Amino acid sequence: MIDDGLFVAPGPTETGMLNRLAGSAERKAGLVSTVPLGRVAQPNEIANAILFLCSEASFTTGEVLPVDGGSAV
Description:
It contains three helices and two strands. The chain is an alpha+beta fold. A two-stranded parallel ribbon has the order 1-2.
């Protein structure tokens, strides 16, 4: 495998880990309010970004792909 220096930087993603980290619906809502798209990512959205970077169509090297609902803008 060739290391092309490709990384995915996910934002808040709807997982059990996020729910445990937030601790309550109110705290989770507060976190969601900081995301410009106004929602957390679904796991398949993060997976699709990873699949793109792994595909033969990706002529990309040395990048960090933020998949964070616009938080990095």
